[in-house]
Amino acid sequence: KLYGKNTMLEVDQQSVMRPITMATYRVEDAKKVRSVIAEAFSIAIRECGPVYVEVAEDIWLDEGSEGEVKIEAEKPKAREEEVEKVAEMLREAEKPLILAGFGVNSEEGSKLLTEIAEKTSIPVATTGNGRGAMDEENNLCLGRVGFGGGNMTADEALRNSDFLLCLGCQLTDISTYGYNWMPSGKVAAVTLDREAGKKLNYALISYSDAVDFLRRLVDRVSGYKAPESWLKEIEGWKSIWEQILSNAVNMEYKGFANPSKFFKRLNETLPENTVVTAGQGMHVLYPQAYIKAKRPRSYLAATNHGAMGFGFPAAMAAQLLGYTGIAVVGDGEFMMTLQDLETAVREKIPVKVVVVNDNSYRVLYFRQKIQKMGRIYGTLHTNPDFSELARVFGAEGIAVSSDVEIDDAIREMLSSEKPFVLDLRISPDSFAPFNFQPAVKM
C-alpha cells in the first residue's frame, strides 16, 4: 500500500534483479501469489536459473486462493534435423571437441557425456559451471577452459578445434578470454539461453535441453573415432601443463606454506562425497588446478559474475545435504561472510573452510604489479588470526605457515566434527598456476 511513495527502505528491487535473473515478478494481489509462485518455479526449473518474486508484507495478511497449482517444467527438445546436423559435423571433424556446461552437469548428463566420449574418443573440456560433468581423472576429460582457472590443455584444444560442440552452454567472454581465444573452425551450441545467438555466429544453435540432445546423439555417432593425430597433439599440451603444475608444487616460500602443494595433498585425501566450493579471487586458481571434480556438481564456484563471498555459505548448504562441504576462500572474501561461523556453530554444521591467506586483494595486487608499474595502493592489508577467530566463535581452527604442517593440518580438518577453519598463510607473491598467454589478453 506504500509502494511508489518513496517510503523508508523502498528500492526498485525488480530493476536491481532483472539483469541477473531469468524473470522478476511483483505480486500486488494475494489471490495471485500461488499462480505467480508456480510460474516462477516453472521458469527456474525449465531454464536452470533464479527467478525473483517480490511480495509486500501486507499482502501476506490478505486471504489467498486455494486449489492445485501446476508447474510446467519440461524443457524444450531439439528438432531431429538439428541432432542429425550436429552428428554429421562431428563425423566430418578432424579435431572435434565437446565443451560441457552446466546444462549437462547432472547424473544422467554425465553418464551420456562419458558414453559418447569413450565411444568416439572425442575429448571433453568444461566451462567453470560444467566441472564434474565428466570425471576429470578420465584421460578424455581435459578440464576447464577460460579465464579464472582454465588450463593450457583445455584452452589449446578449444582454440585448435575444427568443430566445437557446446553442450548445455555457449561461448562467452570467460571461456574465450574476452573473445580473444576463439576456436579455429565451426561451433555448434545446445543451450536454453535464447540470447546466445545474438552474441556470436554459430554454425548451428539449438535452443533445447542438452541432456535430451545427448541422448539422441549417442547412436548417431557410433563408429566414429577422433583421429589419433588430434589426441597426440592434445597429449603434448597436457604434458607441458602437468610440468607447470609440478614445478609450482616444488617451489619453496620462506616463512609461508606453498598453496600448490597444499591443494595437491588435499585432493589426494578428500572423501568421495566432498563438494568443494569457491567464490572469486586469485585463490581459486589453486583448487581449479589441483582439485579433481570426479562427479556432477562436486565443484561449485561463482564463475559467471565473479562473486566474492559465495564459497562459505555454499559449502554450508552442501554440508546440510549430507556432503562434506569444503569452502576455499580468500582472506578478503572470508571477511565478507565469516560472521556465518556463528550460524555453523549454532546449527551444528561441520563445514570446513580453507582460507588462502595472503594479506591482500591479490587479483588487484597482481594487476598493479604487472599493469601499473608496480604502484601498490590499497591492495595489501592485515588480517586477524582466522584460526583463533574460529575458536572464539566456538568452532575449531588451525594455522599453517610451512609445508611440513600441511599433512597433519589436513587430517585434523577432515576428522573434525565441528565447523573448522584452516588458515593457510601464503606469500602474496606465490605462483598461482594459470594459462598466462591468453589470460593477459583479458
Automatic annotation (TrEMBL):
Organism from which the protein derives:
Archaeoglobus fulgidus
Pfam families to which the protein is assigned, alphabetical: TPP_enzyme_C, TPP_enzyme_M
CDD domains assigned to the protein according to its UniProt record, in alphabetical order: TPP_enzymes, TPP_PYR_POX_like
Q: Name one GO biological process term.
A: isoleucine biosynthetic process
List the GO cellular component terms: acetolactate synthase complex
**Domain (Thiamine pyrophosphate enzyme central): residue spans on this chain:** 83-217
Q: Give an example GO molecular function.
A: thiamine pyrophosphate binding
- Name the family the entry cites: Belongs to the TPP enzyme family.
Domain Thiamine pyrophosphate enzyme TPP-binding as annotated: residue spans: 280-423
- For this entry, the protein name equals Thiamine pyrophosphate-binding protein
